[in-house]
Prior knowledge:
- There is one protein chain.
- The chain has 228 residues and is an alpha+beta fold.
- Helix content is 34%, strand content 25%.
- Strands 5-4-3-2-7-8 form a 6-stranded antiparallel sheet, with helices on both faces. Strands 1-6 form a two-stranded antiparallel sheet.
- Strand 3 and strand 4 (83-90) form a beta hairpin.
- The protein is globular.
Amino acid sequence: xxxxxxxxxxxxxxxxxxxxxxxICRFAPSTGFGKVxxxxxxxxxxxxxxxxxxxxxxxxxxxxxxxxxxxxxFAYLPLSGNEAEVSFMQALVSGYYMDQWKADTLQAxxxxxxKMRPQLQKACKxxxxxxxxxxxxxxxxxxxxxxxxxxxxxxxxxxxxxxxxVDENQNRTFLDVLHLYxxxxxxxxxxxxxxxxxxxxxxxxxxxxxxxxxKVVCNGYECSLEGF
Length: 228
């Protein structure tokens, strides 16, 4: 009933729309819009993300202008308990859009990152405890089959929060949420999606704990890990 109410309110104009009638944000069934950055994880740590074990696979992309920590966070949280395995993959070039200079620089820096994998494994992969109330809220989203919040074209551009739940039978369900930047500016009144804000901000605060001890510094084509 709650999700149905949100759909009605969204249709009534609580999301911003262009003159074409396409809304910037909309609610949609959680059918897997998010893409888990397995390739990026393999670049940094030498191992892909398999998503074979039951649990919650969480991806948080920080790529907007107001993100103090820019890059991709990944976490695996078992179906029971609140201790997660967290990884951080820092962005190697600034900005979201790619030109030829950035593409060349990124390619060179990725080769530098490959040489740093032992240090990255040590500094940028940690076990982190999620607050119990945050874990309970996450479970509630999946128990009630909550809608995803995506843009008007069915995607979640420039990062955002993506969660894949894998059950004991390998069935997958999904939750994708637009970047917090858009949630804060385009949804009125905000009370209608209070739980989405609480989930997003809680996950963001928990995952960003790791970034203080995992800082990649790049100069030209070469990168190094601060403190190593």
